[in-house]
Amino acid sequence: MFAVALYVPFLDGASRLYEVRFCFTQVTSGRALVITYLVAALFSAPLGLLIDRVGYKRYFIMIGMAIFTTAQLIILFYPQCSDNFELNGSIIGLAFVGLGYCFYGNCILPSVPLVVKKKVTGTAFGIMQMIESIALAFFPLING
Length: 144
What we know:
mainly alpha
């Protein structure tokens, strides 16, 4: 749940990050950010089928969080201001962010009905949405 609260604000501010840190123009940083959404769109359905077939969602959740962490480390440690826009490390980091989001969407959300009683499933989803909304609302205040 907190992964989405970190995913969405990161992508909101990532355009400026790519302009300042990696010397992209406003247009090329916008194009780079689309990669995250394309990866999520392309891999969500096949990954969902794989997870449903294999099971063991808890292991896939751990893999997804490892992918999120790897993505952030790639973006953090990639050298600043690369001269070519081609497939560089910062773009690969964005692709990993999209892949981590696929794992999140295919593992965490379907697991809620397995954890709570059927009678309170709606309440559980409501609480998840509330926490996510609060995190999204206060994230810009925390970052300044």
